[in-house]
Amino acid sequence: MKQPSYPRHIDLNPVPHVQGTVKLPGSKSISNRILLLAALSGGTTRIFDLLASDDTLVMLMALQTLGVKWEQIEGTQDYIVHGVNGVLPVHQADLFMGNAGTAIRPLTAALAVLGGDYTLHGVPRMHERPIGDLVDALNAVGMRIEYTGNPGYPPLHIRRGQLTSARMKVRGNVSSQFLTALLMAAPLMAREEAMQIEVVGELISKPYIEITLNLMRRFGVEVERDGWQQFTVKPGQHYRSPGSIHVEGDASSASYFLAAGAITGGPIRVEGVGRDSIQGDVRFVEALEQMGATITMGENWIEASSNGPLKAIDADFNHIPDAAMTIAVAALYADGPSTLRNIASWRVKETDRLSAMATELRKLGAQVEEGADYLTVIPPAEIGTAAIDTYDDHRMAMCFSLAALDGALRRGNRIRINDPKCVAKTFPDYFDVFKKIAEQTLI
Question: Which residues sit opposite 121 in a β-bridge?
């Protein structure tokens, strides 16, 4: 899994127009879910087009440490994973999870249920990302998870527990990954009676739960749900390999290119996701359409173009929090103030994205109002030269590349992206791909 080498910063010259076709990397959310499900299954699974990134490498290395055998097909992003049928070969391990929320949360639940002696830790930012709601839910039904640092946050020490209840409760308003983790672990618990999971309060990011349910079904487990408040896994279900499975292109990554097409006129086409995608972030195109873009979709592609300046938007983005960051930068090109609502989950991502976005948008000349769960962006008359800090957050780096578009407004101004290597988390060659559609020079 070779990674590009990056300088300390990349300077983006003004880009008057972008067009072309982009083949998307695999979805991070789908990749890490499939890896864990394949590992827990009976049988061998061939995974096509797995994402090559820091986060998937974290999961692959963790599974290897736990005794799960896998191999990469030479010259491809295809992998073969040999399932352990719900019984891990290694019962004591120290696991480094980087800053991969899609790895540490489901692994925590699975390891707590399967039993053993495991420690999980990551980079300093991971130790600031909450996991208490998941730990509380598991410990309440007899699991044994302890904090070895600050309560409510990794690092964690997992010991062998004893299931004492078939009903779990978890809050839904911090991260949908907590519910995903419990759902993926539930079949491992539902040996003699059904496991029920109740969501307390509002469930955010529902499309990510739909991804989880879809993939569990592909691996042979059906989950019954009563609205978004209660989920039931009946006993006797076991994960079974589907034989082979394909990873869709990453819909969140698609947002940068589609927005670029909308901002400059395009057309830009992305390949790897389309109208049949299981990812909720394809609904990003609905926001672009509200802003005046023209969107066309096929089974496995989406195209964006426009015929004029973007319209301001005022919308709820609870369902697509990651892709919503792209809208915040696209708002720089709108014809008035734009407001993104119900995005409190930004604060517990790779960085506090609400604060970080407000800070960096102001550098570009925008007036920004940052609320507890909303962001209002008043676009500047002209975007000035700025050095954008990325906070070791891949999406900060990628979405702010869009600030270099529409060069006619900038009179030679330049956008600097600091620490561009953070894109390795999900899209290692992002700036190379951006360069191809932008026909510009990276200095």
Answer: 96
Give the model's pLDDT for residue 88. Answer: 97
pTM for the whole structure:
0.90
Distance in angstroms (rounded) separating the CA atoms of residues 330 and 362: 14
Catalytic residue at 322? yes
| Mean pLDDT estimate for the chain | 94
Question: Which tokens hold the place of 365?
Answer: 């000349």
CATH topology of domain 28-230: UDP-n-acetylglucosamine1-carboxyvinyl-transferase; Chain (3.65.10)
At 276, which amino acid appears? D
Q: Spot the catalytic one: 54, 133, 250, 322.
A: 322
Q: What are phi and psi of 241, to 5 degrees?
A: -60, 135
Quick one: which H or E segment has residue 171?
strand 167-171
Q: What is the pLDDT of residue 362?
A: 97
- Confidence (pLDDT) at 410: 54
Nearest CA to 61 out of 27, 94, 34, 30 is that of 94
CATH 3.65.10.10 domain range(s) in the chain: 9-26+249-438, 28-230
Q: What is the pLDDT of residue 408?
A: 45
Rounded distance between C-alpha atoms, residue 139 and residue 160, angstroms: 11
Residue 357 CB coordination number (10 Å):
28
Q: Token digits for 331?
A: 């708002």
Mark the ranges of the chain whose per-residue pLDDT is less than 70.
1-4, 407-412, 439-443
pLDDT, tens digit (0-9, with 9 covering 90-100), for 21-68: 999 999 999 999 999 999 999 999 999 999 999 999 999 999 999 999
Q: What angle do CA 174, 179, 184 make, to 5 degrees?
A: 150
Domain covering 9-26+249-438, topology:
UDP-n-acetylglucosamine1-carboxyvinyl-transferase; Chain (3.65.10)
Per-residue pLDDT at 256? 98
